[in-house]
Amino acid sequence: MRFTVHTRNCYLRYCSTIFYKSSRTISTAIYFALASFFIASYAQAELPVPSHIVAPVGEHKGENVPQPIEFPHNTHVKDNKINCMYCHTYARRSKVAGIPPTSKCMGCHKMIATDKPRIQKLTEYWENGESPRWKKVHDVPDYVHFTHEKHIRKFVFDANFPVEDVQQVCGLCHGEIREMTVAEKTKPLNMGFCQRCHQANGGPGDCWKCHK
Question: SS3 for 72?
């Protein structure tokens, strides 16, 4: 469950009501323990921003892109702690992050969760020698030259940032993927968004760096 500010406030009001009605039996210490628990849960639910990065401001809300299989990012990233770059192998060395080949998926799913409809559909693709026709979600215009490799190098490798926490860097542009099933675009990825990030984090300001 994802805690929002509204959810947190509701829980705090709920705790206050319990304390008021049961003040003879519930001590103040228990009340504050409950309140602290929900505040901590809220804080932990938010993906932290690495201390060496100033996160660009901007939100996007649009239509979700349907996919041939409802890939559960939350199961892989949040529950099983699989690193983003294990599946998106090219992110550290290429312009594109890359989509894993079906063979990589089947490396696990020949044995894991074989009874799940999603995996059965994936297996059908595999047995037919096909790959799911995944649709791009985080897209930019053709005249924009964005490279994952340079951003991963600057914010992860050059900064000696722990690779196991790379989702915090990825989340700056891709949002809270760990809370999603199918990826949704939650950041605008427009010129203003990119400029704010470059200005705050020492990125290049030359037009030709991004527009080829």
Answer: coil
pLDDT beyond 70 at 167? yes
User: Which residue, chain included where needed, has tokens 């469950």?
Assistant: 1
> Could you tell me the residue range of the domain that residue 188 belongs to?
73-99+134-210
Rounded distance between C-alpha atoms, residue 52 and residue 55, angstroms: 10
Pair (180, 94) in one structural domain: yes
CA 115 to chain centre: 27
The torsion region of residue 55 among left (phi > 0), alpha (psi -120 to 50) and beta comes to beta
DSSP codes of every residue in 47-78: PPPPTT--PPP-----PPPP-SS---HIIIII
Rounded mean pLDDT of 139-153? Answer: 96
- Does residue 83 belong to any structural domain of this protein? yes
Q: What is the end-to-end Cα distance of the chain in Å, rounded?
A: 43
Three-state SS at 17: helix
- Show Cβ contacts of residue 70 under 8 Å, excluding neighbours closer than 6 positions: 118, 181, 182
CA distance 105 to 108: 6
Can you read off the two tokens belonging to residue 24?
């003879």
Q: pLDDT digits over 86-106, tens only?
A: 999 999 999 999 999 999 999
Please name which of 211, 57, 63, 65 lies closest in space to residue 146, comparing C-alpha atoms.
Answer: 211
